[in-house]
Amino acid sequence: MSADPRPSFSILLCLALATACGRSAAREQLDLEARDDPGRALSTVSASERGMPQELPLVGTLVADRQSDLAANAAGRVLVTTVERGQEIKAGDVVVRLDARLAKFSAKAAAANSKAAQAQLALAGLECERADKLLQSGTISKTEYDRTMSQCETTRSSVSAAQSNAALASAQAGDTVVKAPFAGIVGERFVDVGEYVQPATRVISLYAIDPIRVSFPVAERDVGRISVGQAVTFTVSALPGQEFRGEVRYIGAALRESTRDLVVEAVAANAARSLRPGMFASIRVAIGETKQIAVPTSALLRSADDSDHARVWVVRSGRAVAQVVRTGPEFDGYTAIITGVSAGEAVVVDPPADLVDGTRVE
């Protein structure tokens, strides 16, 4: 007689009881974990596609809006210097005074010569009038008349030259006081008290840096994507964590043959004077709009030394997980996420500082 292959009722009953017991134990374990880890109430949003500005990454250099090496424009010994490196000055401020004594003496001499020439001109005018009357009466010959008139014309030329010399001497006397042609910051002072300078001698370098310009080359293939008025954002390594904004203002007329690129300049406000000419800039030029996954900017935890990456807290399987992401452009309170987060994933907004990996999220 063969054995019955079907399990007996007692075996089935034992299996059912074991399964129920296992489920009960698992449920008790979960309840215990929930009591030990009650979870935190955190504000979350779903990462979603948004219209974000499309940007062209470039590099460039900051340059002054206006820059000049002031020349003495006069000869003489330096008596006074009134500025130092880094000093902010206004248009018309005196920067250097030269010894003006020789220039003043020259100006007085030139003015005296001009007056003497004018007196001679007046006398020559009388001679010319007398020559006209004598010629009409036949008292003098045409040759004598022409000689007299030539002398009058020569005297007029001498007067004009004397007046020009007087004006020049007066201007040179005034040039012994060197003034700033525009407001700016002194870059360097090239002369000191006691030095003798010539008209072409550099006195100071002056920089106007508010606003400041951002000069950058654009490759030939991208020239058609650049136009006046486009928004520009840039960072400098000297000021980590800060982003500056400007707009394209000046576009070169021709590409440089040696590098096949076009020089473009943007202008940015610099009221704090924190941006300095010569700084290297990492630039992004807005060239349109594209759909990208984005999250609120307040969800990002950025590092001061890496502006292209950040950390976010993503909720996965009910728990907060730290995730490093590569970021894109910012717009209207949102930041584009290039890699690290998928569409639809829940991201913690304004994450608390004490949040740790694995925290259960309610």
Describe the overall structure.
- The protein has 362 residues and is α+β, with helices and mostly antiparallel strands.
- It has 3 helices and 18 strands.
- The strands form 2 sheets. It has a 6-stranded antiparallel barrel with strand order 2-9-12-11-10-13. Strands 6-5-3-8 form a 4-stranded antiparallel sheet, with no helix packed on it.
- The longest helix has 37 residues, at 101-137.
Topology:
Elements: H1 9-36, E1 44-46, E2 48-71, E3 76-81, E4 88-89, E5 94-98, H2 101-137, H3 142-174, E6 177-179, E7 184-189, E8 196-197, E9 202-219, E10 231-236, E11 244-251, E12 261-268, E13 280-296, E14 301-303, E15 306-316, E16 319-331, E17 334-339, E18 346-348
Antiparallel strand pairs: 1-18, 2-9, 2-13, 3-5, 3-8, 4-7, 5-6, 7-9, 9-12, 10-11, 10-13, 11-12, 13-17, 14-15, 15-16, 15-18, 16-17
Summarize the structure.
By secondary structure, the protein is of the alpha+beta class. The chain has three helices and 18 strands.
Question: Main attributes?
Answer:
single chain, 362 residues, alpha+beta, OB fold (Dihydrolipoamide Acetyltransferase, E2P), six-stranded antiparallel beta barrel, four-stranded antiparallel beta sheet, 40% strand
